[in-house]
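1st attempt posting a full record on here, be nice pls
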Amino acid sequence: MDTRRRFVPQIVRAAALGALCVVLAGCQHIRGAGVADLSPPTLAGTYEREGDDGTRSFLASQTPRALQYTQMDFYVGMPQSVPGLVQVEGPEGPLWLYPQVIVQRSDLTRVASVRTAQGDHLLRFHLNALGTRKLAEVSAGNVGALLVLVMDDQVAHVARIAQPLKQGMIYLAVPDAIAAQRFLSQVQG
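the predicted structure (as tokens):
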């Protein structure tokens, strides 16, 4: 019975120490919660992924899922039918897209509207390092093809790739400041 009295305080101390570790671990996690997260929004857990770098196919994007933010993906496309490409309805008729996403929302760090010296309105998409590398590689081999922005499984914008895009940014023309603001509101959710 005497040995029992010696072990009970040690068990209580060990339990208290374990509880203290759990509380401190929780405090450490909560302390970082007040810091603003400037990383791009993450996609829902049911988002289908295919490659090690997080890319996914156009067909995988057609599966139903609950997103907190507007889905944004850039594809390379063609204005005419090519075997192996996926046909979608574009703003001015059908387009044919390569099934692999080139740049997705997780590759974006920022989207902003800008105005040129000539008064034109543009949307500027800033890419992270992975997005910059993927876009540079794909655009270098597809000069003359189309860069197609798909938002929530609808073609939102089409632009021609005039040269390799190596600067880590994508610029898309919009008609005016109202259209740019409407687009930014849609992106922010």
